[in-house]
Amino acid sequence: MEYQTQPSNHDDSSGNPMADDDSCEPNPTVLDLTSYQLHDLDSVDFPLSLTELDFTANRLSKLDPRIGHLSNLKKLSLRQNLFDDAGLEPISKWEAISGLEELVLRDNQLKKIPVVSIFKRLLVFDVSYNEILSMNGLSKVANTLKELYVSKNEVTKMEEIDHFHELQILELGSNRLRVMENLQNLTFLQELWLGQNRIRSVNLCGLKFIKKISLQSNRLTTMTGFEECVALEELYLSHNGIVTMEGLSTLVNLHVLDVASNKLTAINDIENLTQLEDLWLNDNQITSLEGIAEAVAGSKAKLTTIYLEHNPCANSPNYATTLRQIFPNIQQVDSQVFG
């Protein structure tokens, strides 16, 4: 079967790549079989030099045991296949590939976190878009992990993540979470994605270095809880029930603020956010543009994008012209882009 490969670069003693020598066949390091609609891998060769395997968008439901002998393997993607818990089970015993660093199991039929304790250097673990009911099993995942994706499952509780001291990205969007918890040890966390859950209040457990937070489409009624996140650069809070803009004055590094589709009647507490570039306020209940220049005083020159459509104030005469006069470097008002 034909497949895409990339050669590894081996040098001879003279410093010239051995691939230039016609007598040496370059060893493939990447096998990409994306979208081949394979039901099995019987017709596929697995050179021992492989470091990356990508089987995205096939019809696989069982693991080929030959994969377990690829001792150089660093990345394995089984995304968008038909693996259930039983079909994936053999991987937990494959000692030869224990050096794996990236394991992508996204979009399959898993009902629980698979046993992956054998991988002591795992950096990326993705089990999003499955049918997982609980985060039980994550406690056995290596503490080397830097990125964890468990979005679009049926998870109800944030648990078994305390030991991920190196974690930088945590994605738990589209689950059934009600409470933010067990984040206090994730001191290196840079991104936290919790959109489309059932969270009513913010509890960031003292995460002072986080840069991106999404709590879109939850059940928040207040913005309080972000005050200590002074490194925050992007904050997404659209589609909640927030009534007042508050607790934002300390977020002086904020570049993007999205509070669209809430219940806001005025713009408050952002006058000293000097780095703000994108401000999304559409679909609220803001009645007037009066005072907006003062409300966004700190970022008046920096702001390039503002959304205010579907507010009463957007019906005022010369609405876009007024905003362009207030913000000299504005490039976009709602969907209207200026050259």
Automatic annotation (TrEMBL):
Q: Which GO terms describe its biological process?
A: defense response; response to other organism
Region (Disordered) location: 1-27
- UniProt entry keywords in alphabetical sequence: Leucine-rich repeat, Nucleus, Repeat
Write down any Gene Ontology CC term. nucleus
SUPFAM superfamilies in the record: L domain-like
Fetch the Gene3D superfamilies from UniProt: Ribonuclease Inhibitor (3.80.10.10)
Establish whether keyword Nucleus is in the entry: yes
Q: Which family does it belong to?
A: Belongs to the SDS22 family.
| Protein's UniProt name | Protein phosphatase 1 regulatory subunit pprA
The record lists the lineage as: Eukaryota, Viridiplantae, Streptophyta, Embryophyta, Tracheophyta
